[in-house]
Amino acid sequence: MKAFDDFSKEVAEQVDNENKRLHNEKARLETELAKVDEQIFLAEQKKRRVVAYTSDGGLCPYCFIHNNLSIEMKPIPSDSELDIMKCKHCSSELEIES
Questions:
Q1: Angle at Cα 33 formed by Cα 31 and Cα 37, nearest 5°?
Q2: Which of 10, 47, 56, 84 is the least buried, fewest Cβ under 10 Å from its Cβ?
Q3: Helices and strands (DSSP H and E) totals, the chain
């Protein structure tokens, strides 16, 4: 009978270990899912800002879309026939035809 008792304890321990492993894996996946949900939320906000953005105000598109900031781009001197606008916040530059 001792062999059966030892075997049943071993099987019970294996089942318990598998149960713990699965719960740990579930917790890891739930954490990962929460991170993905946050990324989706941020991407949807950016998508709304893409639709809302207009170049009329001279705002930096990168800052507006990615950071939800309204930073006015300033002209910088250039020898080119194109106007160059630069964002003081992110340093993005845009060439605009005169």
A1: 120
A2: 56
A3: 2, 3
Other C-beta atoms lying within 10 Å of the C-beta of residue 89:
14
pTM comes to: 0.70
Quote the domain boundaries for residue 70: 55-98
Instruction: Quickly state the pLDDT bin for 80 (edges 50, 70, 90).
Output: confident
* pLDDT, average across residues 35-64: 95
Q: At a CB cut-off of 8 Å and minimum separation 6, what does 58 contact?
A: 72, 73, 85
82 and 45 co-located in one domain: no
CB 16, CB 10: distance < 8 Å: no
Q: Is 12 helix (H, G, I), strand (E, B) or coil?
A: helix
